[in-house]
Amino acid sequence: MRVKVRLHPDSTQEKIIKLEPGFYVVWLKEAAFDDKANDALVKMLKNYFRREVKIVHGFKTRLKLVDVADK
Questions:
Q1: What predicted TM-score, i.e. pTM, was given to this entire model?
Q2: All structural domains of the chain with their residue ranges
Q3: Average of per-residue pLDDT across 46-60
Q4: 2-68 in CATH: which number?
């Protein structure tokens, strides 16, 4: 399954909100520096979906395309 994620790095809170099917907004405390925000996003989405997750597109932008493994 592929989902779109709008990332808000360097936030004061950490949360995930599902706006519509296949589109999520994520707030992270990690800064967008040295891929720390991307690593934190993958870790947070793995806990949320309870499946393997990898970023497919958007490594340097806030809008990302993420692949969530099927079981």
A1: 0.92
A2: 2-68
A3: 96
A4: 3.30.1200.10
